[in-house]
């Protein structure tokens, strides 16, 4: 993967009370790159995705997205705290799929997928519905357009959530343990959908997962987190086959999930 | 009972219903402003909303009514008596219902808001499209209680000579001497209105729940907590 850095973390620090979660973290991701974040529970992987999604503010440091800063605005040489309008503009390029799906129960399936394209992107209703149906077909739910989310199984709900995320044409897709709440076979189906998406788009992806086979298949790069920072950064082949760091070896031994 | 007296009763019923309906609508406006104001980013708004709910919940409707009718004119504001009645009831019930709004909004899972942020909805769109439609379902049962409280409180306006159902009944009692009959009739009357209101609220609840793809049991005494 070559090209410009698309996402950059520079000196990012985050603590919850006395619990320092990320300490002076710097890394970057290139456009179109698919990066998997691995590491023990509590090592800050979710926090990184949430900061990119503007759900959690960093205490210090800057996060860049394609030349713009997410939480700051450049005024001449100065970096000022970003306005809500600036944040919205940068955030437009990013979206996220959550562990617990978070479909809107007050909207039927198709409307879950079309609401943002219509009211945030300003697409026409027809265009949004057309594309929404296409995406729902793609995730295998073309027959559920008018179902309530509560009528769907977990795996189906997560596939709708994936369609909903793709419907806003993101440049960056964040996936936070999207199959952790699902039974193994169902998880495998969802991961297959994601594999197809990875193969057919050039969307930049940051993916937190314990599904190591999936990570190996789709990612260009794997980052191993431990105690507030990245302790190993490399290709999946390198990281999974010959991990250098002792903690990485121990972590990989502990992850038995082979989906 | 003579036709003339019966006409009083009908008119009184009309006034009671009007007080209830308009009191509820205006109270709903206060409730939403104050209830949503409680979770505003701005301190001033939060403070004002809190002061309103805390203070007006403590005032008896009757005292509030007297204040609006007898004190305001001293400052040069003469309210129409019926409007003063509606306003007093609405201010009071609105303060209670504001707490309902606040609680219901807080009961919407944080993941819903997070998903709305991830789709880049504006703060207003998050509220309108995601939070409120879900919160409303949780508001309806307690609103139903507020509405019945309001109905009962309307009878207080008879004390400032607004001719509501209670006032009309007093007139009928005075001119016929049928104390037992009149008060029994009054009890049945309020009971029936309450029943109608509760039924309407049940229907609303079912409708709202169905929009979320949930079922609410239909029996008179069945009430299931939202799943
Ligand atoms: N909102 C929060 N309040 C307090 N602590 C939090 C919060 N979110 C995360 N944490 C803490 O931050 C640490 C990192 O969490 P997280 O980013 O979820 O890790 P991971 O996703 O790698 O398991 C954990 O110790 C967690 O308890
Ligand atoms: Mg996590």
From TrEMBL, chain A:
Q: What is its main location?
A: membrane
Q: Which domain of life is it from?
A: Bacteria
- NCBIfam families this protein is in? ectoine_ehuA
Write out the entry's keywords from A to Z: Amino-acid transport, ATP-binding, Cell membrane, Membrane, Nucleotide-binding, Transport
Q: Which SMART domains match?
A: AAA
A family per Pfam:
ABC_tran
* Taxonomic source organism: Prauserella isguenensis
What PANTHER family does this protein map onto? AMINO ACID IMPORT ATP-BINDING PROTEIN, GLUTAMATE_ASPARTATE IMPORT ATP-BINDING PROTEIN GLTL
Protein name (database record): Polar amino acid transport system ATP-binding protein
Query: What PROSITE patterns has UniProt attached to this entry?
Result: ABC_TRANSPORTER_1, ABC_TRANSPORTER_2
From TrEMBL, chain B:
Give GO MF terms, alphabetically: transmembrane transporter activity
Locate the transmembrane regions by residue number: 12-34, 55-75, 81-98, 181-204
Gene Ontology cellular component annotations, sorted alphabetically: ATP-binding cassette (ABC) transporter complex
Which residue intervals define the domain ABC transmembrane type-1 in the entry? 13-205
Q: Where in the cell is it found?
A: Cell membrane
UniProtKB keywords: Amino-acid transport, Cell membrane, Membrane, Transmembrane, Transmembrane helix, Transport
Its signal peptide is none
Where is this protein primarily located?
membrane
Q: How does it sit in the membrane?
A: Multi-pass membrane protein
Q: Name one GO biological process term.
A: amino acid transport
Among Pfam families, the record links this protein to: BPD_transp_1
Q: Which PANTHER family match?
A: L-CYSTINE TRANSPORT SYSTEM PERMEASE PROTEIN TCYL, MEMBRANE COMPONENT OF AMINO ACID ABC TRANSPORTER
Provide the family line.
Answer: Belongs to the binding-protein-dependent transport system permease family.
Give the protein's recorded name.
Polar amino acid transport system permease protein
